[in-house]
Structure formats: structure tokens, C-alpha cells
Amino acid sequence: MSKKLIDEFVHLKEKEVIKIVKNKLNSNQAPSEIINDMRKAMEIIGNKFASNEYFIPELMYSGEIMKTVTKMLKPKLLSGSEGKENQCLGKVIIGTVEGDIHNIGKDLVVFILEANGFDVVDLGVDVGSKQFVEKIKETKSPIVGLSGLLTVAFDSMKNTIDMISSEGLREDVKIIIGGSQVNEVIKNYTGADAFGQDAMSAVLFAKKWIGV
Amino acid sequence: MKKESNLGKLSEKKFNKNIQNWISPEGVIFNDKKSEKLYKERVNRLKYAIKLEKVPDRVPILLNVTFFPTYYYNISPKLAMYNYEILYQSWKKFLLEFEPDSAPGPHIGSGKFFEILGSQNYAWPGHGVGEEYSFQFIEAEYMKENEYDIFIKDTSDFIVRNYLPRIFKKLKGLKYLISINEMLSGHVSNFIQFSKPEIREGLNFLLDAGNEAAKWGEATKTFKKEIMAAGFPIFGGAVALAPFDIIGNYLRGTRGIMIDIYRQPKKLLEALEIATSISIKMGLSNLRSRSNNPVVYMPLHKGGDDFLSKKQYETFYWPYLKEVILTLIKNGYFVYLFAEGSYNSRLKFIRELPVGKTMWRFDQTDMGNAKKELKDIACIAGNLPISLLITGSTEDVKEYVKNMIKLVSKDGGYIMCNGAGIDKAKPENIKAMIKYTQKYGSYN
Predict the structure, then answer these.
(1) Counting CB atoms within 10 angstroms of each CB, which of A103, A117, B289, B359 has the fewest?
(2) What is the pLDDT of residue B402?
(3) Measured distance between the N- and C-terminal CA atoms of chain A, rounded to whole angstroms
(4) Would you call A168 exposed, middle or buried from its count of C-beta atoms within 10 A (0-12, 13-18, 19+)?
């Protein structure tokens, strides 16, 4: 574990992070170790976000830094023996529901989930109920995230959850909804198991549901 | 009060003239005596609530609807975006049936216009989103991260040659134009460009778009006159934006601007100066063409509690927003702000504004706290949750209305309004919101 790398990443020192990663790769350090450090740092960044020390700029910027580092590691990962270097916590299907094309909140949640070790299947935006159902059948993912900014998305969320139930899959999945207007009332209206109002909620619920 | 006097007598004079024009709108012939009486009562109610000088007869009611009137009367969003007459008739019908003190006009825009120019930054019914869904903005980096310098150096040139060809597919040809500045000599050689097929094609689409926009404009003008004649004042025809949102929504996208805060803060600050003057121009020039009400509407998107830290807000968001607000006020206008999301940690910034010149509609802000912080500064409104209107019963709405009025209506300075815009909701709940505000909101 490199405390320095974690520290610099937590403080969003992009240039420093890149320099350290470069040095580590040059001295043949295993990419998986670097990824582990980056993930540890992301956990701290996530906690800082949850405690209102960090906000959207920090989350998005950390995503950028993470992306740059991942790009640097990629050739090493492919040539080395470590394909799946990290243990995956679990699968999550996510998408913005039918009639809504907003992706900013969803993309942020995807990034945070991935950074926390989840394998995310991102279906994109304006995703119909059927697509969700098919993906659940195909991947056996135990967690489904439905995103929507518009208030008409509430009905699409409800329709999606209704269809998951009528297909006999409701018992197999936990469902979380997200979006700036969702709340307890909308959670009940749609029949979801939880609602999240910020990017971290999805991670907290997902971890709780899979028992880590 | 001291702050207000700083604005000078000139702006007060402008205010009074603008308010006079609101109360007695030029060119509007009321349908009957009753409509005229209702119109004036409604304007006064709103005016007293904003100015904080006097308590109105009762809590004014503003309904913020987006696609509700069309959904309610079974008109598809597609039809609403392609047939201005049908759209406006549904809006008129809605006002007459629900009778709020005011409601925004249909900000729905024109599908035909989008089509003519091949709009890339909007999805609209049948184009990128189903026919039964509303139009939506498509965020992207329409200004690249390395284009700040071009934007800062010559904004209009950037808009014409870089930005418009990106947001309108049919205006691609404009990127072949030479810089407008180069035409200053008036020499024949600089005009050869207008013989190029790509440029001519783009300009022809612009001419078509202009004709369509004029049709839309005519219909809008008629609609506004008709609803005023029927007794409903217009509240906020002109629109200005927070400079941070201009850059974040239209140019760099959320992700872009948030990362720029870290990677190129100085350039972002320079661009915000420019966006400030753009926003002021938007507010004032809009007003000139849509007179009859002294209110500029400013929806605020990316400055809420969850978006930026306090330090980021006071560096990148507030100073520029404040300048826009103050300039509009100096020109004799009220500013109606919609603070999307929650604004709890921003309330103390609002205290820097002059007394009785702004109205803040909140979305998910703690209203009791807002009243406490702002009661001597600004009128507050909003917060009635969309989830209540969609899922609640009329009894739930009644309770909410009763409690909210008790909590924040004391001494005026409060307007009953929903938080997020209404697309779909139970009509009986909207009626209950109005009925019980009339019942419990009386100051007499």
C-alpha cells in the first residue's frame, strides 16, 4: 500500500498522482496494487462527499483522475497475467428509465459503484421496462438501479418495477431509485426498496444488500 | 431599507413605471369588468408579496406547470410542440379552470423549429424521446475544454462559427464563414464566402427557422394578450440565467465545468465575467420584447447545497449571479429565482440583496428556516412537493397547505407555489392546493 499515492489522490493532486503511478509502473509494481490504492482513496473521497466536505466537482474530478490512471494501467493489465485483478463485490444493473434521457446523476453513480468494486451493467438512458427485465434474466444481477430526473420518470420506474414483479423476478432483486425529486413517498409509489438522493447512497445500499 | 435607498431614485422611478405598466397593460382590452378587477387584484397580491411593504389580501398562488395542461387535456407533447394554437388553447383552458393568481406561459418551444435547424442539444417528442414525453436538454461539451480562449477573446465569433454549427446540424456550413470582424473593410473579396454552397445552405435554413420562430412569436403574443384579457397577469416572461449555469448548461456541461473548477479555474472565472454580461442582456432584451410585466425569471440549476462547496459557491456562482440580479433590479425589474434542489446553506447570501426586489421559489429548501432568514429581505415561495401532488390525497394537500401557511405566511412575503414543475399530477390535488390556500391564506 502506498500512503503517498492514496494521500495525493484523496487531495486530488492530479499531476502528483500521475507521477507516482508512472514511477510505480517503471519500477514494475503490480497494477493491481495501484488499483487497490486508488480504490482505497476513492472510499475516503466517497466518505468526504457523504460528510459534506467534498461536493460534485471533487467527485467528478476524482473520476477524471481515475480514468487517466486506468488508461495508464491498461497495457500492463492486458500483457500481464492479472486480468481480473480485483475481486468483484457484485453486479448492479442501472439505467435511466423510459422517457428520460438525463445521464449525469446516473453516470456519477455508475462511477462510484465501480470505484467501490461493483460490476456495473449500464443500460444507458430512456431504457424500457422490457430491457431491464431481460438484463436481469441474462445477468442474474441482484441489484437494479433506476434513475430519473423528470417527474414523469416516476411512472416509468413504477412500470418497470411492476414488470419485474409480473415476470416473477421481484424476489430476486433489490431495487433502488435515484433522482433529484425522489423521496420516501416516491419510493413507496414505485414499489422500490430504497431511494438515494446522492451518489453515495447507491453504494451504501448496495453494500448493505450484498452483506459487506 | 438602507440597502434599497442605495439603488437610487432612478431605479425606483423605473420600478414604478414598470409596475404601472403591469397593472394597466398596454394594448390589452379586458374581456369584461370582472376580468379587469380580478387581473388588478392578482397583480396587487403578487406585488405586495414581493415588495414586503404591505400584506396582501391573501397569500397569492402561483402554479408552476410544465406539461400539465397538455397531459390533463389529453394532448400529446408532440402535438403541443407542433401546433401552437392547440398548445395555447390548452393553457388558456387550464388557467380558466384552475384559476391560480398566475402561472408561467408555455415554455414548451417549437418542434418544427428544432426540426428545421436539426437541433442537437434537445431531444423532443419523436426525436430522441417518445412522442408522449416532454422535450429535454441534451448536455454535452458544446465548448471543448481548450476553447475558453476563443470564447473569451471573441464570444460572438465563437457562437457563430463554433457553437451554432454544433448545436444545429443544419447550420454546419457556418463554420466555413470567415470571422465577422474581417468584413469591416467592406471589400468585395470578403464576401465571396457567401457564394459557397455550405454557407448558403446554412443561411437558408436560418431564414426558414426565422419564419417559424415568428409564427411561434405571434402565437405567443396573442396568447399572452388573451390570458391577460381574461384576468391573469403574467409573472416572469423574460428569462436570465446564473452565469455559472450558462457555462455549465450550454457550453461545458456539468462534468466539464466541475472539472474546470480544478483544472482551469482562472479561465472559468474569465468566462463567467462574459456569461454575466450575456445573462444581463438576455434578461433586459427579453423584457423589451415581452413587456407588461416587470419580472425576470431566473431558474438556478447547479448552485444548490449538493452541488458546490460554500467556497466554490462564493467563488464561482454567487458573485456573478448577484451582479446579474442587481443590474436587473437597477433597471427597474423584480427578479424571480427558482432555486432547484435545496438551498439551505445559501440563504445567508440572499441577505446581501436589496429589500423587496426578489422572489425566491424553493424546491426542497427548509421553508421555516428560509422565512426566518429572509423575512425582511425577500419574498419566498414554493416547496410544495411534486410527490404530494402525484401520490397524495386532497386531504394530504389540505394539511400541507394549512401547515405551510401557518409556518411562513406571517406578515406577507410568501407565495404559495409548488416546487418542481408539474408534468403529471392528480388534478384534484392541484385544485385542493388552490382552494385551501384561498381558505387558509386570508390576511383579513
Answers:
(1) B289
(2) 98
(3) 22
(4) exposed
pLDDT at B2: 43
Mean pLDDT of all residues in A121-139: 97
**Claim: this prediction has a pTM higher than 0.90:** yes
Across A44-66, average pLDDT: 95
Whether residue B259 and residue A60 make contact (CB cut-off 8 A), yes or no, is yes
**ipTM summary value:** 0.92
* Chain A residue numbers touching B134 (CB-CB < 8 A): 150, 152
Place of cell 486508488: A38
Question: Rounded to 5 degrees, what are φ and ψ at A11?
Answer: -90, 10
Please tell me the distance from the alpha carbon of residue B441 to that of residue B435, in angstroms, as a whole number.
10
Q: Which of B129, B392, B421 sits opposite A99 (nearest CB)?
A: B129
Contact A152 B130 (CB under 8 A): no
* Contact with chain B for residue A195, Cβ under 8 A: no
Backbone angles phi, psi at B296, to 5 degrees: -105, 130
Alpha carbons B67 and B77: distance in angstroms, whole number: 7
A126 touches chain B (CB under 8 A): yes
Does residue A154 belong to the interface with chain B, where contact is any CB pair within 8 Å? yes
Q: What is the mean pLDDT of chain B?
A: 94
Chain B partners of A103 at a C-beta cutoff of 8 Å? 139
- Sequence-distant (6+) residues with CB within 8 A of A165 are A191
Side-by-side strand order, sheet with B334-339: B61-62, B414-417, B379-382, B358-362, B334-339, B295-300, B238-239
- Chain A interface disruption, residue of B66, B255, B307, B363, most A CBs within 10 A: B255
Report, as an integer, the average pLDDT of B10-19: 86
List every span in chain B annotated with CATH 3.20.20.210: 1-62+235-444
Per CATH, domain B1-62+235-444 is 3.20.20.210: yes
Chain A nearest-CA distance from B272, in A, is 17
Q: Does B140 touch chain A (CB under 8 A)?
A: no
Reply yes or no on whether the pLDDT at A78 is more than 80. no
pLDDT in tens, B50-86: 999 899 999 999 999 999 999 999 999 999 999 999 9
Over residues A26-33, mean pLDDT: 91
Residue contact A101–B139, C-beta within 8 A: no
Question: Are B262 and A180 in contact (CB < 8 Å)?
Answer: no
Question: B80 touching A, CB under 8 A?
Answer: no
Mean pLDDT of B109-113: 95
Chain B: closest CA distance from residue A45 (Å):
14
| The pLDDT of residue B294 is above 70 | yes
Instruction: Say whether B262 and A56 touch across the interface (CB within 8 A).
Output: no
